[in-house]
Amino acid sequence: MMTERVRVKEMFPPGHVRTPFYLRGKTGEIERSLGPFGNPEQLAYGVSADELPMHRVRFTMAEIWGSDAENPRDTLDAEIYSHWLTPIKD
Amino acid sequence: MPLPLETAPFSVCPMDKKDSRRWHDMGGLDGAPIDMAEHDYALWEKRVDALLVLSTTKGFFTVDGLRRVIEDLGPAYYEKMSYYERWVHSVNQNLIEAGAYSLGELGAKMAEVAARGETYGDCAGCHDD
After folding, report:
1. Does some domain include residue B17?
2. Is there a domain that residue B65 lies in?
3. ipTM
């Protein structure tokens, strides 16, 4: 199976979001897909929530921290809602 | 306190990318050592915890709403409040937004509770039930 590469959107809306700041704009690969789950960006304000897919995305430490990474090839998994991800065409 | 407040990467009204980072979203920033000491919970803290379970079970709000109000505190209040002080602030805000009670009802109840005295001992025997 082809690995699906994605980039986390560089969006900065003020409010309740679950996508960590330090991952915005970073590139990773989908490790597995999860969900659908209610969108917390709507649930947090008491409005009806869309059910959205969520993906476990794997990033290398080199991608996240650049030359500061102590172990550049170690990886970090983060679960990110689909509307925060852009597919990367190879 | 993880960072001096004057260097807090936080703004209520973000004008650019750097300012838009909010206080709770601190992954990757330098922080202070973590206090690993165990501690017991005060009675009021257990009650706040129970209040959240009741509120969410009854459908007034979700844990997402709990987090939203705490995140909106801003660094000064976030650091000034203890963990369950943040919770009770947020539970109250969410219950008002959900229409569970009005501010008038809350004010009247707070006055009634204050009149019982400062401590649980002062309040002994003051309940009707």
Report:
1. no
2. yes
3. 0.87
